[in-house]
# Entry
Amino acid sequence: MSFGRPGTFDNWKVSPPARGSFPLDHDGECKTFMISYLKCLKANAADNGVCRPESRKYLECRMDHGLMTRDDMANLGLGDVGTQHTASAPINPPDAATSTTRI
# Structure
């Protein structure tokens, strides 16, 4: 009976990830975008298709702060996603104080 490393790993070579390293956001520069994305996933039963705008904003934040290499959104699978807000998060929510509704 043999213990230890199997012989098949003798010629095993490690290759780096296709898109390089993905450093942690130690300073929390993109934490608000991450939380927004995770809340969207939770609210939509982990349906990533609904949360693609939040995913795009998070990745853009990471690129803006040097936490990942800048790349085209089409290469990341988000080229068809605009930066507009989703229906669950309106751009300009109505404000009761400035409402001009008349009865």
Summary: The two ends are 87 Å apart (CA to CA). Residues 84-103 have pLDDT under 50 and may be disordered.
